[in-house]
Specification:
The protein is an alpha+beta fold. The protein is built from 5 helices and 12 strands.
């Protein structure tokens, strides 16, 4: 079975024309392909202060636009909206939509060490265990800090540690305990994909650190772009159209796959034809997990 996964930072559904239009995002994704999993960052709900936004609940609108998918949300900002007449909260974060069976969901708050030099916000990672070809696969989407290198490095280390944490769960062959209850053992495989907006470029120390070996000979992460496109510089994923925010285009959105999945990578491409966000969609095709 071949699967396709899309990751995209939506900039709260704000296009390069300044319009916030969740419907345009939905139409664009459907025009781009028939994806098994959508990994989306920068989704907003009740944030009227964001440029172009009317405070629409984008989590609900995007879920409604893909009714054949299971929608899982992971706001990392969840605050009171003091002046909201309906008493609604304000939420901002990540979401995933899956047509694959979802065996488990993990919502991780990433480290947020105080950095007096920069203003930033809480960051997180949404992890699904999905079933592909009868096997469990971990897929995580994230959006790391932009302003603070201190915070971004801590968040990067946390992503690596999640791979280390999964290993003993994957190796556990004991009988399922308390079947049907919350203590029931669930799959947590080391076969893993981490994708999203990492806010570092391919020539950074952070990019190299993400792919360094893990303890105990665990399968480390590889940039799927270079597996699928050997010898080619990573195509730019931000700044192709929005030169006001990004004077020069660069790449900061990636698919990292665990080493055991490297032979399964069939294609990685950046979709450059849309300006529905300041970032471009990045698409991974992965094949034959049954072997």
């Amino acid at each position: 079975m071949t699967i396709e996964i899309l990751t995209w930072n939506l900039q709260w559904c704000r296009g390069c024309d300044g319009r916030v239009d969740p419907g345009r995002i939905i139409r664009t994704i459907r025009e781009l392909g028939d994806f098994d999993l959508l990994c989306l960052q920068e989704i907003a709900d009740n944030f009227v202060g964001l440029a172009g936004s009317q405070g629409e609940n984008q989590f609900d609108l995007l879920a409604a636009g893909f009714p054949e998918y299971q929608a899982l949300c992971a706001p990392v900002v969840d605050t009171a909206a003091v002046h909201d007449p309906l008493g609604r909260r304000r939420r901002f974060g990540n979401m995933m939509l899956s047509r694959l069976p979802v065996l488990a969901v993990f919502r991780h708050l990433l480290p947020w060490p105080y950095d007096p030099s920069f203003t930033d916000m809480q960051r997180g990672a949404l992890e699904l265990v999905v079933q592909v070809d009868g096997r469990p696969l971990r897929v995580t989407t994230t959006h790391l800090g932009y302003y603070s290198g201190l915070q971004r490095s801590a968040q990067l280390e946390a992503l690596r540690e999640l791979q280390e944490q999964a290993a003993p769960h994957d190796a556990d062959r004991s009988e399922a305990r308390r079947a049907g209850g919350p203590y029931e053992r669930i799959a947590r495989p080391v076969s893993s994909i981490v994708c999203g907006d990492f806010n570092f470029p391919p020539d950074s120390a952070e990019y190299a650190r993400m792919q360094q070996p893990l303890p105990g000979n665990l399968p480390a992460y590889r940039d799927a772009w270079h597996l699928a496109n050997p010898g080619q510089p990573h195509a730019h994923t931000v700044g192709l159209y929005d030169r006001a925010q990004w004077p020069e285009p660069f790449a900061c959105d990636f698919f990292f796959v665990s080493q055991d999945l490297a032979p399964r990578v069939r294609a990685v491409r950046v979709e450059s034809r849309t300006d529905a966000s300041d970032h471009q969609p990045l698409i991974l095709r992965l094949a034959d997990l049954s072997a």
